[in-house]
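Our consortium's second objective concerns turning raw sequence data into structural hypotheses that experimental partners can test. To show how far this objective has progressed, the report includes one record in full. It was chosen at random from the queue rather than selected for favorable results. The single chain below, 68 residues long, was entered without modification.
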Amino acid sequence: MEILVNLDVMMAKRKISLTELAQRIDISPANLSILKNNKARAIRFSTLMALCHELQCQPGDILEFIDD
């Protein structure tokens, strides 16, 4: 079981770069990259809310539960 972060998919759909999104939600590009590349061990609700607000999506559009 794992949770996948589909942030790269949402960013491509919205045609926004990592640097631009990081600036808009006030997070470092390095931390956003960790999240985008499925290397994060946790995500703050405030970060998830900012991502959803900026990308005009729901948390389920970004996070996906995979049950082996």
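The partners drew two points from this record. The helical segments are 7-14, 18-25, 29-36, 45-55, 59-62. DSSP finds five helices and two strands in the chain. Both points have been shared with the crystallography group to help prioritize constructs.
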